[in-house]
Amino acid sequence: MTDEKIVIGAGTKYPLNGMLTIPDKVNGLLPAVVLVHGSGPSNMDAKIGNNHFFKDLAEGLAKKGIAVIRYDKRTFVYGKELKKDTGLSVKEETIEDAILAARFLRTDSRVDVNKIFIIGHSMGGMLAPRIDAEGGNFNGIIIMAGSPRKLEEIMIDQNNDVLNSLNKVLKVIARKQIASLTTKFNNIYNLSDDEAKSTKVLGKYVRAYYFKEMGELPSTNYLEVLDKPVLILQGEQDFQVSIEKDFNGYKKLLEDNSNAAFKLYPNLNHLFMPSIYGKILKARKEYKVAQQIDKQVIKDISEWILSN
């Protein structure tokens, strides 16, 4: 395969370095994929601990004859200035750049414009249907370790998982913190946009508006009317999303979509790599161990893309 350095959003306020991975053996036009990051600042390889999730995906899919585009996340490159933007939403953080990446692929003469897909991981998976609807216009959507729920619901669940792992003294403190956060989250949709922009909910910078804007345009709105192919993947040992609430939630939501496919992977974590500790409290320790995406996951994704 060949890695070609590219720039997403060249000429805009936020140009981003990226990589287009092209298969060496090309028979005709290539199917192609845009990779969309999960939450938090991240480089084009989606480096988490000592793992390079997007680099693995790009190289694995390129070996199967699929072109892949990945790029630094806007908050990774321009985090300092974006922190001060009280009106920051997922639109500026993620959606706009994913749409620009799709447009970039459509200008490449080697790419089949009728075979351009999106792979969203974690929060990128939650946003993938919206990215598609707002201008991505993909031929199919792949959601890896995503959720049909609102972001704040997932965060409270994750906090409760941590709470259950603590000793009695820390539990009391954590319970109060979670109760306070829950109260803030419960009030988000009662605020006007201006009020939400001036209300901090997490740390010094994260405003209520970030959650409100995303929550008022939930993925369920887009998935309920989706008629294009969609593939939902999750690891059984993923401690960041839930089989019952998320994977099965997607199944219920898409039960009437004959183009929807689902797969759960035994013993794989949030990065679709073998689970080591299997506990959210040990996430940092788990991701410090250098691993690679399970080969079966790459095989399943590539076969699904090539058959759609």
How would you sum up this structure in a few lines?
With 308 residues, this protein is an alpha/beta fold. The chain has helices at 53-63, 74-83, 90-106, 123-136, 151-163, 168-187, 193-197, 208-215, 219-223, 243-253, 283-288, 295-307, and strands spanning 2-8, 16-22, 30-36, 47-48, 51-52, 67-71, 111-121, 140-144, 200-202, 206-207, 230-235, 260-265.
Range of helix content: 40-55%
Overall structural class, as computed from helix and strand content, comes to alpha/beta
Main sheet characteristics: 8 strands, mixed
Q: Which consecutive residue ranges, at least 5 long each, have pLDDT under 50?
A: none
Roughly how many Å apart are the termini?
23 Å
CATH architecture classification name of the largest domain: 3-Layer(aba) Sandwich
Order of helices and strands: EEEEEHEHHEHEHHHEEHHEHEHH
Structure description:
The protein has 308 residues and is an alpha/beta fold. The protein folds into two domains: 2-148 and 218-307, Alpha/Beta hydrolase fold, catalytic domain (Rossmann fold); 151-205, no CATH class. It is built from twelve helices and twelve strands. It has helices at residues 53-63, 74-83, 90-106, 123-136, 151-163, 168-187, 193-197, 208-215, 219-223, 243-253, 283-288, 295-307; strands at 2-8, 16-22, 30-36, 47-48, 51-52, 67-71, 111-121, 140-144, 200-202, 206-207, 230-235, 260-265. The strands form three sheets. It has an eight-stranded mixed β-sheet, sandwiched between helices. Strands 4-5 form a two-stranded antiparallel ribbon. The protein has a two-stranded antiparallel sheet with strand order 9-10.
